[in-house]
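Exam prep: given the inputs below (a chain plus zinc ion), describe the expected output before reading on.
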Amino acid sequence: MPQRILCNNCGAILFEGMDLTPPDEIVQRYDGKCPKCGKKLSFNPINVEIRKIK
Ligand SMILES: [Zn+2]
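Solution:
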């Protein structure tokens, strides 16, 4: 299952690949900010299906 992580400010692709890499690891890899627009990165889990339990 391919995973893609985008900057939620400018849409730059920060990570793309088949590995399931935790978003916080990607954030660390970029020193906590987007290399393109410089926005501080904070990711919610992406590619994780969230189901509401009622
Ligand atoms: Zn950006």
